[in-house]
Design a protein that fits this description.
6-stranded mixed sheet, 5 helices, glycosyltransferase, transferase, PRTase-like
Length: about 210
């Protein structure tokens, strides 16, 4: 697949590069026409810092943030985002006057949960959700439901890539959108045109990477 890879560049910062592989891929919720390779974005400090700085500009100092909920292995980006928000004067309302970086778990039913020892980082907190890729918004909805269940207040949603502009009435603050990836498509598995034409799946993908078939 790697030989088909190309790059797209973030508007306003060409040093942020998203690697894109066209093909036929299955996510837990849908089939997609492009795999977005984000490994170095998540793990290299320089790239993670640039992404955090890019995303932080969407939050005004009047928006309080106590916790950043990180999905898809984005804890490094989340830590840099907390730092950028603090620099910009975004206030945390908790007693420690600092921003928590929190990772939820998925239980056996696919629901997001927070263990007892970290629930206080969500309950009565102002929360920003940070994700790698949003395709249909289903995982994001589950995350939002979980945060509300545990008593958090959702102040924003940020992502490296989003195929949708809004989920549950909230605007998605992303570095890249569907329009930035030429011919990007997402379909329900039962309605996938690539399946109907007999195009084989290249890989199964999720927020952590891909497994070739």
């Amino acid at each position: 697949m790697e030989e088909r890879m190309f790059k797209v560049y973030a508007s306003g910062d060409e040093k942020i590069q998203l690697k894109v592989i066209p093909g036929h891929f299955a996510t837990p919720q849908s089939h997609i026409s492009h795999y977005l390779e984000m490994t170095t974005m998540k793990t290299r400090c320089a790239e993670a810092s640039r992404i955090a700085k890019y995303l932080s500009t969407k939050y005004e100092t009047s928006t309080p943030v106590d916790s950043i909920i990180c999905l898809d292995g984005l804890e490094v980006v989340g830590a840099f985002l907390a730092e950028e928000l603090a620099k910009a004067g975004v206030l945390s309302m908790n007693a420690h006057k600092t921003i928590y970086i929190v990772t939820p778990e998925f239980n056996g039913n696919g629901q997001l949960m927070f263990r007892d020892n970290i629930q206080h980082m969500v309950r009565n907190r102002n929360v920003v959700i940070l994700m790698g890729s949003i395709t249909t918004g289903e995982t994001l909805r589950k995350c939002m439901e979980s945060i509300l269940y545990y008593g958090g207040t959702i102040q924003g949603v940020s992502a490296i890539f989003s195929a949708v502009n809004k989920v549950a009435g909230l605007d998605i603050n992303a570095v890249f959108y569907k329009k930035d990836v030429p011919n990007y498509q997402t379909h329900k598995a039962s309605e996938c045109p690539m399946c109907k034409t007999g195009q084989k799946l290249d890989a199964i993908v999720n927020g952590y990477g891909y497994s070739k078939l």
